[in-house]
Amino acid sequence: MALRHAVPATLLDGEYSGYQPAKTFDVVVANFWHAPPQQLYAELTELEKEGLVAGRQVVQETRPDKRLFHVTDSGRAELKEFTAAVSKPSFIRDDLLVKVQVADRLGTAPVIEQLEERASAAEAKIELLGKLLRQLRGDADEEEFLRRGERIGSYLTCLRGLAFEQGHRDWCLRIATVLRERRTTHAER
Amino acid sequence: MALRHAVPATLLDGEYSGYQPAKTFDVVVANFWHAPPQQLYAELTELEKEGLVAGRQVVQETRPDKRLFHVTDSGRAELKEFTAAVSKPSFIRDDLLVKVQVADRLGTAPVIEQLEERASAAEAKIELLGKLLRQLRGDADEEEFLRRGERIGSYLTCLRGLAFEQGHRDWCLRIATVLRERRTTHAER
DNA sequence: AGAGTCATGTAAGCTGTTACATGATTCG
DNA sequence: CGAATCATGTAACAGCTTACATGACTCT
User: How many CB pairs below 8 A link A and B?
Assistant: First the structure.
């Protein structure tokens, strides 16, 4: 289970509705996660049924009413258990890798194009994460913040996200160059 | 669909049974993918039904008979289509990130332990991939191989796997250090 | 004799994605 | 006035994981 724990983990930092995190889930909560609202509503409903989170109705005049959720004691306990349990190593699972794998056989042109698109998407995310990190650490420099900051969880996971995007960008650009240069020397197909 | 294309991609390099790749799927085919044999059998059966791959029975004396699969023309065509279609960006989805996110609230000890375990697992994989890369490029150096080599698909995906594992290791070690050093200054809980 | 490997599958279940649906309010 | 945003859900489906099952051969 993944969202099952990712959602309460988010909620530790405060109350959220189902809608809020859905918008920012890519970046703020989990610079690493992504989930459409539907999934969050479903998960929150399930978690509430099990008593791991609790919601309270907030009436809004101009906007539709919403429900803000927080983690219950029982939810905290389960999160703590989850934290202690071992989990399996992660791995990349990316269609683009499959495409690169077969590019020299089935045609490089569309793959090169996608590699370059990915690289600029990664670049954009790198900048976004850079800003977010600066914002999170405020005036302090990184070392300082990590030593004395109160809540560093988000910062640490952002760092992973940043490194991932940088690695992704670098690889995309490298591979695009390699494939491009081969086009002059290797016949396609 | 992911395995749906990853499997034929593998099969482009030669014939395989369901069993063979299952063992090496972590490393050889897709230094990035991982799938248990059950899934491969299921996928191969499905792909065969749709005519994208074809199998031939190989009788073995000492071992149980097996079926070797290869990609059909129709399978190649679909792969090529897949290669041209755009796919969504990838992201990390790792329980460990969730744990790090909440570590400063719910207890750092078990998380530090897991970070260090992960780091050494990543280290092991880095060495494995290094060996594989050396083996794939033979006598040539990397630049040379990437320019003139016949089939570089696996090499390129391995490079991504390698960079990913290095990033993973570095992050794990860094975060473990950060959390460890905070333990002397921050009370837990 | 028992453990491990080669070889193949079925069946159930968990997670996550996508499409569909609703309805008020705000912004240009 | 139309598009976007806030806000919440249902239903169907696709994909992956896990448990279970079988059976022969090889190595210690």
Answer: 204
What is the domain count for chain A? 2
Beta-carbon separation of A163 and B147 below 8 A: no
pLDDT tens digits, residue range B151-166?
999 899 999 999 999 9
Regarding whether B74 and B129 lie in a shared domain, the answer is no
Give the model's pLDDT for residue B163.
Answer: 95
> Cα distance from B46 to chain A (closest Cα, Å)?
19
Q: What is the pLDDT of residues B27-85, one digit of tens each?
A: 444 566 778 888 888 999 999 999 999 998 888 877 788 888 999 999 999 999 999 99
Burial label for A49, CB within 10 Å (0-12, 13-18, 19+), is exposed
pLDDT along chain A (189 residues), means of 10: 87 78 53 79 93 90 86 95 91 91 95 96 90 92 95 93 95 98 78
Whole-model pTM: value is 0.92
B43, B63, B84: which is the final residue of a domain? B84
Q: How many CA atoms are closer than 13 Å to the CA of B92, on its beta-carbon side?
A: 27
Phi-psi region of B36 (alpha: psi -120 to 50; beta: other; left: phi over 0): beta
A90 domain-assigned: no
CA atoms within 13 A of residue A112's CA, in its CB half-sphere: 13
Domain membership of residue B161 as a residue range: 95-182
B155 vs A: CB within 8 A: no
Q: How far is B58 from chain A (nearest CA, A)?
A: 26
Last residue of a domain, one of B61, B84, B107: B84
Predicted local confidence at residue A28, as pLDDT: 45
Place of tokens 């059966």: B45
Which residues in chain A are contacts of B12 at CB distance < 8 A?
102, 105
Spatial contact of A5 and B97, defined as CB atoms under 8 Å apart:
no
Mutate to test the interface with A, among B12, B13, B97 (most CBs of A within 10 A): B97
Looking at residue B32, what is its pLDDT? 65
